[in-house]
Amino acid sequence: MITSVSAQQDTVKISISYTGSNIQSILHSIEESSNYRFYYLEEWLEDNSETISVDFKDASLDEILNKTFENTPLNFYILNEKVILSQNNIIYDELPQGYFTGPVNDTIIKSEVVSESIYTPVFYNEDNSRESDEIKTVRIGKEKPGNVRKTFKLRGYVENSNNNSPIPNLTLIERTKGIGTVTDLNGNYEINLPPGINVLETVALGIEKQRKKVIIYNDGELNFNLVERIEQLEEVVVQGNQKKNVEEEIAGTNQIDSEESKDIPLVLGERNILSVATKLPGITNAGEGATGLNIRGGKTDQNLVLLDNAVVYNPTHFFGIFQALNPFVTKGVKIYKGNIPAEFGGRLSAVLDITTIDGNTEKFKGEGSIGPVTSNIALQIPIVKDTSSLVIGARGAYSDWVLRSLDNEDLNNKEASFYDVVANYTHKLNENNSLKVTGHFSNDRFSITADSIHHYSNRSISLEWNHKFNEKNSGHFQLNNSQYKFDIGYDGPSNNDFELGYGIDETELKLKMNYVPDSLHFIDYGLSAKLYDVNPGYIEPKGSSSSIANVKIPKERALEGALFIGDNFKISDKFAINAGLRYSFFAVLGETIERNYQEGFPRNQDTFLGTTSYGKNDIVKTYGGPEIRASARYLFTPDFSIKASYNNMYQYIHTLSNTTTISPIDTWKLTDSNIRPQQAEQYSLGIFSNFEDDNYEISIEGYLKNSKNILDFKTGARILLNEQIETEVIQGDGRAYGLEFLLRKNKGRINGWLGYTYSRSELKFDGLFTEERINGGNYFPSNYDKPHDVSLVANYKFTRRYSASLNFSYQTGRPITYPIGQYSFNNSEYVFYSNRNEFRIPDYYRLDIGINIEGNHKIKKLAHSFWNISIYNVLGRANPYSVFFVSEQGEVKAYKSSIFGVPIPSITYNFKF
Questions:
Q1: What residue ranges in 169-286 does DSSP mark as E strands?
Q2: What residues does the TonB-dependent receptor plug domain cover (predicted)?
Q3: Using an 8 Å Cβ cutoff, are 464 and 448 in contact?
């Protein structure tokens, strides 16, 4: 209440005391006890519920109101006994000196010549356009006399409206001024903006864009609650933002969320984003149980698989049936199969950029599953609230019953087991620095013969430090290490027991910078260096009685580096370009011995000239060249676009395998003086469209890829432990072309997609000498050439808790070489074979069905759960994995090998808390 009001020398002094009063009651009290009258809008005070307790004695009205409005956006102006309130801004009764000599802007008017000691007021014109109605206006802070700062600090938090989790690595940009920032791992951001109107826009993969008109008067806080555009499992949507397929400048990309595999029936009920990828156009594999992906007619070794930036050489378990990455820790994968950004290199076909989830920094969370073969668990553990967290995921197989159920008597009573562990730690150091460390280890052990045990493992660790320099510049420093190795232990009835092994290790340093100069450009640039250390193989006797000789192939070492720059350039609202240039180089390093052969002749024992020795870290041979990455998009309408791209790439590492698909005992070989790096260039052109309010998506994309220096092997080549492997290989050309069609339904009770690919993949080996030619030097189908590929994935939601799914696949049978006759030579019978890959095995088709039963959707419960019941290969078709021939009693007989020849039912219990 007011205790007294008095006038002293024409100045009104007020004594007032109030406890727990709101602003409106205080103003009414002053009006009732004095001649002052306040003028304001009621809604300015209705939204302010703050109560105030202050005691003044003989204070001026200025002092009282300054204290009352201290934590509000309100200012005031006293004119005689009238008090006029304003929101955010100050009411001026005169303009700064020299104000009208400066330029006038329609939106923000401020003097360019006023002294920095004089505060320049903020003026703006109200925008009554339709576009303005769609953008929410937010006022931040309030003007203060004497505040002459050119920029003010806006900070806040960005969260996902679906689950209130933070959204890291989201870009906030003021396009007209070229100012931007990125949220840290905990969703926090900070940006300096000039006073006046700023239009902030949020940009993130899978998150709906949001624009806000922010009028800056002083420092303040603004939080964003954004809608996730990656539909949950029931929707079976592969990509995020519903217009992303139309709007994105980069051609030939796919985004898969790990959750999406829940509703797609897969073998033994295991979620597997790599298997989901094969349901998309342009991505396939050699068949059931095949390790590796063939993307746009490329070999399996032409894909760069990354887990939080570290390479994973064999991302599968159990002969390719399971992925070697815990699905509950894996966030998703982005697949670049068309235009590959300039920051990536070293592979010809595709990049699979897999990321792990960021842990919750506020509360403990977990997720797991119990299935017929494996169990999974993943935990999110806050370490320091709002600052750091730890994620741990583990999975293990506990049964060998799968091998006993396979349609192959040789595998009965055999054993196979595997496990994998992945962990990451995220830490927000401060507003400008954050850290993420990820470690992964997978291990397989199997025995398919009574006398040998096979073992292979992957290990990777990555460290990423993110630093924000200012609103326009940020940097990412990465240190990664990867290792893949295998060994075979043989313990037979004779005295030839042995241990055989192989290993490859690589360490990479990478610096990537982001620069946002203005609203039209988003530039990234940087450099990388990678050191390879390869143990090509060894064999040593097992036990003192073994007669096996100790053999060890000399190690290989090499350095691969690159400089890169890319720019996402928005030329207009309709036309945009994503262009990049990468210069890669490769140096073969000593210590090594180089084998020399007679120039102009095939490499064999007859043309061998001798060796040259090189010391440690000596440069033996170098390769390199520029790589162009360019993609363009033109929007005819907001729902229809056309995209085109061109790439050329180098690959300096090869797999040594004479089998159709990757096997656990395949080895990787570095480019050297005798084996040249692979090269490829790809062209693509496609149209993309959405219709019926983004409920449907349709795309048609064609591509052409030409390759050279593709590695293949001579007939009967010996690969393992061959010190002169260059005498067993040949290098030739490749070509691949195709047309990819995708129709997807995103919403409603029934949703899913239909994909069709027509593609060809062919090779040509036409050397100067007979032993360097295959099929007379003409093009022939590669082992993974499958002209027709159809995939149908559908999900029907009966209710919010019950849904049914199906997955149908059809593929042309892959090529094979058949025996077509017999002949006699020196009283011996021999088989005469067709040209390589002249015939095909039978076509492949398979139907899977599944049912999801979710628990009730109560918010407050110990754990949320669901059951997945599925039948893999419900038709029981014995799809041939391979066809092989055996000579029996003078006859050549053909046999067909199948992996899953019967329906495989499974039931999996999943829970989340």
A1: 171-174, 179-182, 188-193, 196-203, 211-216, 220-221, 224-226, 253-257, 283-284
A2: 269-347
A3: no
Mean pLDDT of 781-793: 93
Q: Report the predicted TM-score, pTM, of the whole model to 2 decimal places.
A: 0.76
Strand bridging mode 211-216 / 136-140: parallel
Measured distance CA(157)–CA(239) in Å, rounded? 25
Concatenate the DSSP letters of all residues of 550-573 into one string: PEEPPPEEEEEEEEEEEEEEE-SS
Please give the backbone phi and psi of residue 822, each rounded to the nearest 5 degrees, phi first.
Answer: -130, 155
Residues 106 and 120: beta-carbon distance below 8 Å: no
Number of neighbouring beta carbons within 10 Å of residue 913: 13
876 half-sphere exposure, CB direction, 13 A CA radius: 1
Backbone angles phi, psi at 61, to 5 degrees: -60, -35
- CA distances to 44, 45, 171, 295, 664 from 216, rounded to whole Å, are 18, 20, 19, 50, 60
Summarised one tens digit per residue, pLDDT across range 645-669 is 999 999 999 988 755 544 567 789 9
Pick from 321-325, 578-582, 651-655: least confident: 321-325
For residue 495, what are its two tokens?
Answer: 């005295």
Name the least confident of 70-74, 423-427, 554-558.
70-74
Q: Which token pair is 769?
A: 């000498």
The DSSP secondary structure of 176-208, one letter per residue, reads TTTEEEE--TTSEEEEEE-SEEEEEEEEBTTB-
- Superfamily of chain region 235-912: TonB-dependent receptor, beta-barrel domain (2.40.170.20)
CA neighbours closer than 13 Å in the CB half-sphere of residue 728: 16
First to last CA, the chain: 53
Q: What percent of the chain has pLDDT over 70?
A: 85
Residue spans per domain, the chain: 2-87, 100-226, 235-912
* DSSP per-residue string spanning 14-55: EEEEEEEEEHHHHHHHHHHHSS-EEE--HHHHHT---EEEEE
CA distance 216 to 872: 59
pLDDT recorded at residue 104:
46
361 close to 388: Cβ distance less than 8 angstroms: yes
Residue type, 110: K
Closest CA relative to residue 557, chosen from 592, 526, 533, 528:
533
Q: Which amino acid is at 517?
A: P
Check residue 62 and report its DSSP letter. Answer: H
Contacts of 678 (CB under 8 A, 6+ apart): 302, 348, 650, 651, 652, 654, 707, 708, 709, 710, 711
Fold exhibited by the domain 2-87: Phage tail protein beta-alpha-beta fold (3.55.50)
Class of domain 100-226: mainly beta
